[in-house]
Amino acid sequence: MRPMKYRFFYVAFLLIGSAALTPPLKANPPNIIVIMADDLGYGDLSSYGAKDLQSPHIDQLIKRGLKFTEFYANCPVCSPTRASFISGRYPELVGVPGVIRTHPENSWGELSLGIPTVASQLKKAGYQTALIGKWHLGLTEPHWPNNRGFDYFHGWLGDMMDDYYAHRRHGINYMRRNTVTIDPQGHATDLFTQWSCDYLRQRANSEDPFFLSLCYNAPHTPIQPPPSWLKKVQQREPNISVTRAKLIALIEHMDDGVGKILTTLKQTGLSDNTVIVFTSDNGGQLNVGANNGNLRDGKQSMYEGGLKVPTCIVWSNIIPANTSTDRPALTMDIFPTLCQIAEIDIPDTVEGISLLPTLLGKDQITDDRDFFYHRREGGTRYGGFTTNAIRRGEWKLLRNSPFSPLELYNIKADPLERTDLAKKNPQQFRDLSAALRVQIQRGGAVPWQPTQLKSE
User: CA triplet 349, 300, 130: central angle to 5 degrees?
Assistant: First the structure.
């Protein structure tokens, strides 16, 4: 294990600038773990207000660091947000305006080749890089994690699993260990937890820092918790619906997995020098019982319930414990934040901002920029067109269906987005819609189409 005596000098460098850097200190950057849940609603942790759900391990993690109350996914669905995390950019600008799926005619993105990723950037700086769990950014080999900056991949290439135990999608096995197809037995959440714990034990005595991206499928559909977890929830909460009980059980089962990760970090002595980020890729899915708190709508939606997600960042003895911030931030901000924490260059392509000043308790303005949201989707509901939104300060302009008009809300005065102010504030409407059009034009210049389509 790397000597801890250098850690305090390393942190001093972060605080007072590069003049303090000497070569021995740069050899001891922190390890990094990013845990991303799948479709976890803003109100589906007890630390974020859930009354019928118990998430003690994630709650304790949040208490150890900085809790974000205004953190937004880059998109209300999976692939685009993950593309933003990987690239530090808006998803439509890296070829992922929508969900990447098995069949080309129903797939709405292809992660641009040649772009720097958070993994490739950390790898160049000497980090060992690993992704365990859900990838969802490419099914063809050029797009596999091992070709996008990850030294090690143990998980699921695809989108949702049709069964948490069978691990298939459309009858296809997308489970891999690096490039080898595998067929493990067990619930996917348990597998991803165990593989992560195994990885941490392997890294415990290494001189090199590591970056682990742990991406659970939970609590994405199918809502399939282990029976024992469902029974426990139903005994404790006899008055809730079966639908809600199943989702709670799936979330609590994932929380237990996070607890095992934290225990392993402590047992291996890695805990004190490991930065941990916990977040979700989008809001919860309402028709399977999700709770997005006091927000409008949920997954797939450009309203707040589809975009705002529970998030925390922990770094023992560096980020003050039991703190929170209401400074707005986006998934794509994680990439540059990790680069600055690791004291490595942030690629010029990155559009997110480093949140390190906020993490260290310093003054920082994070909303002096427009926040854009973009989603392309097929089917009769969307027809291959897009939904979009822009947030500028307290104002938000959105189109929640490609066939509906733009709506304007003041989310500070009207957080539930009940009163459309488009007609009452024409200048604000024009300004935001003009900025949104420019962003749409930027995305339109980036190829995203699948390479092969079925003939009509």
Answer: 50
| CA 134 – CA 138 distance, rounded (Å) | 11
Tell me: do 282 and 313 sit in the same domain: yes
**What residue numbers bound the domain in which 409 lies?**
371-444
Please report whether residue 23 resides in a domain: no
Q: Per the domain annotation, does 103 fall within a domain?
A: yes
- Same structural domain, 383 and 242: no
In this predicted structure, what is the pLDDT of residue 389? 98
Which domain CATH number covers 417? 3.30.1120.10
Phi, psi of 132 (to 5 degrees): -125, 130
Q: Which of 309, 339, 359 is the last residue of a domain?
A: 359
Same-domain pairing of 270 and 170: yes
User: Is 231 domain-assigned?
Assistant: yes
In this structure, what token pair is assigned to residue 241?
A: 């619906």
* CA angle 138–80–349, rounded 5-degree value: 90
Burial class (CB in 10 A: 0-12, 13-18, 19+), 81: buried
- For 155, the 3-state DSSP assignment is strand
End-to-end CA distance of the chain: 59
What is the number of other CB atoms lying within 10 angstroms of the CB of residue 124? 13
Q: What is d(CA 212, CA 196) in angstroms, rounded to the nearest whole number?
A: 8
Question: What CATH number is attached to the domain comprising 203?
Answer: 3.40.720.10
Report CA 284 to chain centroid distance, whole Å.
13
Q: What is the pLDDT of residues 426-451, one digit of tens each?
A: 999 999 999 999 999 999 999 998 76
Q: Residue 14: which pLDDT band, with cuts at 50, 70 and 90?
A: low
pTM for the full model? Answer: 0.94
Q: What angle do CA 46, 50, 54 make, to 5 degrees?
A: 45
> Residues 6 or more apart from 437 whose CB is under 8 A from it?
none
The answer to whether the CB of 38 falls within 8 A of the CB of 56 is no
Q: How many CB atoms lie within 10 A of CB 111?
A: 23
340 and 221 share one domain: yes
Is residue 267 domain-shared with residue 343, that is, in the same domain?
yes
